[in-house]
Amino acid sequence: MKRLACQLIGAAALFIAATAETEEVTDIDRFQLWNDCAPMDLIVERLPDAATEIGLKEEAIETTVRSRLRAARLFDAGKSQYLYVNVNVTRLALSIRFEYKKVLYDPASERHWFAITWDLGRTGTHGSDSGFILSAVSEDTDKFIDEYLRVNEDACSRSP
Question: What mean pLDDT do residues 142-160 have?
Answer without folding.
Answer: 91
